[in-house]
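Batch manifest line 383
LIGAND: glutamine
JOB: complex structure
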Amino acid sequence: MTPITSKLPQVGTTIFTTMSALATEVGAINLSQGFPDYDSSPQLIELINKAMKDGHNQYAPMAGVMALREEIAHKVEKLHGGKYDPDTEITITAGGTQAIFTAISAVINPNDEVIIFEPAFDCYAPAIKLMGGIVKSLELEPPDYRIPWNMVRKLVNNRTRLIILNSPHNPTATILHKEDIEELSAIVKNQDILILSDEVYEHLIYDGETHHSMARYPELQQRSFIVASFGKLFHATGWKVGYCLAPAYLMQEFRKVHQFLVFSVNSSMQYAMAEYLKNERVYLDLPEFFEQKRNYFRSGIKQTKFELLPCYGSYFQFVSYNKLTDESDTDFTLRLTKEAGVACIPTSVFYTKATDHHILRFCFAKKQETLDEAVNRLIGFKP
Ligand code: GLN
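JOB STATUS: finished
ARTIFACT:
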């Protein structure tokens, strides 16, 4: 057999899988991959049990259980004003990553250009490349990582098909502001540019800030795929259920891919989530819940030699180790995991050019005692 030609020669196993495996292997506290170490709601778990006992164990409709799509339409309209028809404009997916891949594969043709901002979540670029698209990445600068719209304007041309946004942003923990929306709207106006808005951390936004969903702005909404995640909403990343919102002309193409990629998502969970989502406290209480964790973790880090960067949203905290050592972030992460017993993510992995600002990403969606122990280990660590 002739060896196969890799379609993604530069890609290895994701950093999240790699670091979680290493954390387990060496017994480190795992603040690397983003997931909570506490349980989802017992009430929701009961509802899932009940849905199974009630016989919701066969295929859900391809686009998702209607009761759940209706709850989502209701929630989005209430929070952002944007209307979505549950029948034609909402699809339940097997998590955010599948929704992102599906959206990209539905609209990107060979040589289409896609603008992404780095550091970027690691699934965007491979999906674009698999479709033959061209990744046009722009680097954001610490500490605030604001989008340089003047440079975006220079990058846009008649091959630009898609701009990928992510707010609250993974990994930088920054958010889009009103001015960003104004700049974006001016750039896409009268252009054939679509938007993929990764909003999986929509409810993890702090200090009373507003989440600028594309569903708030009709001009943007009509050209956007919005991706959301129940893993973040219900503290259950392992269930892998999320959804995509898009106007019907885009959702029609999305579903053509979705039906052959996953067909449909597990049914009992969808019935349970539809029921559970009727209680709006489930999502309205999330900012405060995570803001406390953010504040707690930040006050812990202040006792160490690491330096905090701002955190406006998501459950990630950027921390600089510039005052400790000039090792590369990948080397330092390995050492911190093995020697201090705290795993994190080196942020150079989120750049095409492996840009290394000596910044690490920690996940603070953890029990207080986990955060205490991690901070103690960081205080005790002598580089
Ligand atoms: N979103 C999570 C993170 O950034 C991980 C998701 C994954 O492992 N695919 O840590």
